[in-house]
Design a protein that fits this description.
The chain is of the alpha/beta class. Helices cover about 25% and strands about 25% of the residues.
Length: about 350
Amino acid sequence: MTHEVRAVVALKKGAAVSVENILVPDPGPGEALVQVRACGVCHTDLHYREGGINDEFPFLLGHEAAGVVEAVGEGVTDVAPGDFVVLNWRAVCGQCRACSKGKPWYCFSTHNATQPMTLLDGTPLAPALGIGAFAEKTLVASGQCTKVDRAASAAAAGLLGCGVMAGFGAAVNTGAVGRGDSIAVIGCGGVGMAAIAGAKVAGASRIIAVDVDERKLERAGSFGATDTVNSSRTDAVEAIRALTGGFGADVVVDAVGRPETYEQAFYTRDLAGTVVLVGVPTPETKLELPLLDVFGRGGALKSSWYGDCLPSRDFPALIDLYLQGRLDLDAFVSEEIALDQVETAFEKMHRGEVLRSVVIL
């Protein structure tokens, strides 16, 4: 049996997305059919539309989602129909060399559904990050479903599926920021704000937000920033050093991913401090640093992919923090929209007007 549902599709590179009727099959072995309740509009979806990920058009967009399991395929035991779940794009295999070493967040063989979702004419769709959740229903590997407390708002919970988890995890998992530490976060979009929120939860004493947009810097205070630096008006390196006794921050998160922001991060960390790159660079960017400085400053230079998260461990924990009032996921939801408003949401995101537009289904 197949299910005909409405979904947002990028048919060709650079063209505006459209709402199409698509076909979603019943789940096969190891798969789950999910009724999508909410899905955030992420920069990654725009990258897919622009051909910045690959050229496997048409794409079924959307990946930052929460919903309810409608059906499961043969052999599925980790979720059941009726479960409220957050979708993830890192369904670990449990058997590869990373999983065997106890580091499943580096899994080299993550799972996706094997059956294709298609346009009505049978054209296979490439689901964004193996999810494709700008749709009334989607088909995923069961491991891509993480059961969480259904008391959580679907609009807020779904954001753990990408941006919030990436930023929170960059600060807490990768950067290991802790009580009394100082942290600087360069770039205050959704990922950067989540890093700030994570640092606050972890007990950082000084949380410095860095951006070129005063609107974002004003917003950063509500997420936990103790200080702000507008790097278009002042030297960020000198400002951060001045705020940290002349030493630099214990942890610096680059949530932009440009050579100039990474260089700022490198020179604003304390000796033996940690730089975390979570902003995604474009393929053509190059970084040049004096190797003697890399050697002489010690510390750690790390990349954070999806916040080094393990969804089965981290999603329920962050939802608990949300329900306890310690992590305001609702604050990341700038607006709730319909499926046919995704293209407009891309424009708002590009202009920096929103943290997250969230499609409600």
